[in-house]
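Notebook entry, structure prediction.
Reason for the run: the old model in the group folder had no record of what sequence produced it. Starting over properly, with the input documented here first.
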Amino acid sequence: MLAKYSFALLASLATLGFAAAAAAGNPTTTIPSIPKTTVTPPASQCNTAPVQCCNSTTTAGAPAAAEILSLIGVVVQDLDIVVGLTCNPITIVGVGSGGSCSASPVCCDDNNFGGLISINCSPVDLSL
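New structure, fully documented this time:
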């Protein structure tokens, strides 16, 4: 019986020794994730004009946005898209030539909710 346990112990130690040697021979490399970079396009590239000036932006899944979307009966499939809250259009004359927005200038795909919310927004640069 003692021989049986001795053999099992010896086999386990040998396996552990081989695994440690293999791991030492093949070091692993951890590559840090590269942060995403976003380029803010000029307002003139907003294909769904007019550019909006929103008091704030958040995701569709955020509590404030989700509540507004629910109240107006809009279902958004992707809760990670950016929405603008309390938005007003910026005239095209002002874009690129002194247009101002003290909050969040954005270009949104759907602005048909009376300024309450704009859906699928991207930030834009008014100075370009």
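Summary: The beta strands are 51-59, 82-90, 104-110, 117-123.
The old model has been moved to the deprecated folder.
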